[in-house]
Amino acid sequence: MTAHRTLIILTGMNSLMNYFSHQLSSMTAFLEHIVRLESPTTNKAAIDRLGTFLAEEVRNLGAEVTLERQAGAGDHVVARWGRGDGQVLILCHMDTVWDIGALPLRYADDRLYGPGAYDMKGGITIAISALHGLRELGLWPPLPITLLFTSDEERGSRTSRALIEAEAQRSRLVLCMEPALSNGALKTRRKGTGLFRVTAYGRAAHAGADHEKGINAIEELAHHVLALQRLTDYTVGTTVSVGRIEGGMRSNVVPDKAWMWVDVRMANGAESERLTQAIRNLKPVLPGARLEVHGGMSRQPMERTPLMAQTFAWAQSVAAGLGITLLEGATGGGSDANFTAALGIPTLDGLGVVGDGAHAVHEHAVLSSLPQRAALLAALISAAPNLNLAQSAS
């Protein structure tokens, strides 16, 4: 990095904090607006309304915007400033877990409560605000920037994963705008996630006249519910949860079909393999019953590898220039950062807003955290040309 560029960054650190300290009201207004643009993960029309608004916002910042059209999900919005390898990739998702009208928006003290305020419309607000600040302060880095707004993270990123991975392969740094931990820490470890559907087939029969001729699919499934729950091992961070069961027709009919959805979480690759094999190798218990297993691991664990540690250490040094003491931590949920970290791309996760209540009725963003988080993100983007960790940490 040139001496001139170094001087710009060092001078800019002070200007970033000063600039964003005056942006709280505008950032709050923006966050409220996009929270009101409710975007349930299963409601394509609602997500596309939000996507249209965000596309116009980034066009006003000079981005080249394209839409990745989807039939069964919201369209993904791709915003680019320049093209080429060595880009900074910023990951945001637009979808939330809340149906429209399920969670009212309200303010209380320093908090904004509402659907997606924490996960992750606070992160979207920070990303767009940070880019505005870089433009206005003349700190835009001399490298391409791509900002993705995806539509299906809450459903496992089924239509966006290939796009995320393709963009990550061209990136020197990935910045994921998932919310911070409650103390503002970044997330350097995430559990992997998987979802399986186990279906049991039996034989229908009259529950009174021909009970002995039936094979009860629900009974078959019950054996496997208990077996799967026992795969949980808290000592290594593994959890298995049968979260939903369906089956049967009427109480007077021996059910010939039943199925369950199984959520799995694990902290390392070895546990991912163990769980996959255990679930796929389930065998029927009742004579004549049959099992089918579908699904698998959607996200491999994001482990604290040497590359992850070095990337975080770099972020700590950038944060220190702003007077911020940056912490790190772990979480049991997965994110799109799992994909990019697994590719060996330097990845920072949890750069979004401070708050609490992801997927819960008390979901909220701490408003006073917005300016500092925007300054941090802007500083990381501006300093990205000086990042060169992939070879030394591999």
Describe this structure in words.
This protein has 394 residues and is an alpha+beta fold. Helices cover 36% and strands 24% of the residues. The chain contains 11 helices and 18 strands. The protein has helices at residues 3-20, 24-36, 44-59, 117-137, 161-169, 217-229, 269-280, 306-321, 337-342, 370-383, 390-393; strands spanning 64-68, 76-81, 87-93, 106-108, 111-113, 145-150, 171-176, 186-190, 192-201, 205-206, 239-247, 253-254, 257-266, 290-299, 328-331, 347-349, 355-356, 364-366. A 6-stranded mixed β-sheet has the order 1-2-6-3-7-16, sandwiched between helices. β4 (106-108) and β5 form a beta hairpin. The radius of gyration is 24 Å and the shape is elongated. The two termini are 22 Å apart. Mean pLDDT is 94; it is low at 3-8.
In helices, the fraction of residues equals 25-40%
Regions with pLDDT < 50 over 5+ consecutive residues?
3-8
Count of runs of 4 or more consecutive helical residues: 11
- Averaged pLDDT: 94
Element pattern in H and E: HHHEEEEEHEHEEEEHEEEHEHEHEEEHH
Number of strands: 18
Computed Rg? 24 Å
Question: Strand portion, in percent?
Answer: 15-25%
Largest sheet: 6 strands, mixed
Structural class: alpha+beta
How is the largest sheet built, in terms of strand order? 1-2-6-3-7-16
Give the overall form. Answer: elongated
Distance from first to last alpha carbon: 22 Å
